[in-house]
Amino acid sequence: MKKLFTSIALACLISASAIAQQHDEPAAKNNQPITKSRVLQVDSSVTTKHTVTIKGKVIPYTATAGTMPIWDEDGRPVAGVFYTYYERDDITDKANRPLVISFNGGPGTPSVWMEIGYTGPRLLNIDDEGYPVQPYGIGENKNSILDVADIVYIDPVNTGYSRIVNKETPGSKFYGVNEDIKYLAEWINTFVTRKNRWASPKFLIGESYGTTRVSGLALELQEAQWMYLNGVILVSPTDLGIERSGPVQAALKLPYFAATAWYHKALSADLQQKELTDFLPEVENFTINELIPAFSRGGFIDDAQRTAIAAKMARYSGLSEKVILDNNLDVSYDLFWKELLRDKGFTIGRLDSRYKGIDRQTSGTSPDYNAELSAWLHAFTPAINIYLRNDLNYKTDLKYNMFGNVWPWDDKNDHTGENLRQAIAQNPSLHLLIQSGYFDGACDYFNAKYSLWQLDPSGRLKDRLKWEGYKSGHMMYLRKEDLSIATDNLRKFIEESIPKAGQPSKY
Fold first, then answer.
1. pLDDT tens digits, residue range 28-80?
2. Global pTM?
3. What does the alpha-carbon distance between residue 407 and residue 412 come to, in Å, rounded to a whole number?
4. Mapped to the 3 state alphabet, what secondary structure does 399-415 carry?
5. Which ranges in 265-415 belong to alpha helices (H)?
6. Contact partners, residue 289, CB within 8 Å, separation at least 6
């Protein structure tokens, strides 16, 4: 309560001219605190009115772009967190209107990726497969989920326009698995209170490292903020702190290798003619039933079995038996990205293996750069800068950090998978949806399945846990066909996760 009063008092002290002034402040250097003259950005907003046509229906909405404070123990603002909030205008019953709280990952990236690539009302200009095209810009997102839910996109400290405002505040207060979860839960509480959304059904969605973030937030919101959710959505999830070392870690890569080899037509004709989703279960069964046991025997596996395993891995991965045997059956992701199309002069992308790159030399054991990330930054960076300034009228000279410096990041004591399990167990109304791209090599689809299997050892929660796969990469929604399917699946998940009026939350 003290923090809320402090925030209101601060907001009242900011005059209209001061709010306008914050738009013209000079830029702060990346990862440097905003100086005292820029502290006004800690609590301000700009509101605009718009419409978007979704599924053939015109949806009027209000967009708010601004910053809200993070406070220290004495109620003083130490950071300003940037957000964009989309609220449908023709809905008066907010008690039944879902609120989706959205994060991306990195951990040093803002929410730009899903905001203008997936769920928001505006969509960046890309081709049907997700590749950048010019002229840069933004158009309507006819697949946005704004028809069924209001959405807030949150940029953690030093991503987007979010910054530390007190130079005496160390980055370690924000830059870590558990620190990140703690301060963002406090921020969400303030946001929900200010926007009067306590009665609304609430959902968290995170992508990549954002899945670590929202998995931890699910429990933190329950235990520290007394805020109970209806759903958590993990897009391209990390390992969530779930153990998978040794033989399991070595083996789980193969289904992703197989999917990528299938996409690049690097497999034998009999496998290539199969549909991807018909082919992959065969590889998954081999991985679980033969490959993990083979790795478990280490150097004591007999030569005949080693050769047989290598032959089958070569058949499924598109790599040669020699490469596999030379690496003791355990081919790294880096080597796979370099090796699969080496004879054609290309590397393949880490986050999306549909993308190809060209290295300085064909030899080597890893690509020179991430081909897919270069393409995405090419498309997203101009689009978000144009959109925030021209469409949402948020004008500032601060640099919009596509990748902010949040290092060193404390990744110790990551128990977010267990946190999520506890949250689901404690809250009978909480549901989980995982969405993965088959061609994602950073957070690969089979590791996501493995996390799902390990999330609930009892098996008694599995009716509320679901996984979906898409023929795309890390940002599966960039492929227009998958964007339509995935957003429809989000609508279905949101609808099914909200209990009927008066239905008690109990076992």
1. 333 333 333 343 478 989 999 999 999 999 999 999 999 999 999 898 999 99
2. 0.92
3. 14
4. CCECCCCCCCCECCCCC
5. 269-272, 276-286, 292-296, 303-317, 321-326, 333-339, 371-386
6. none
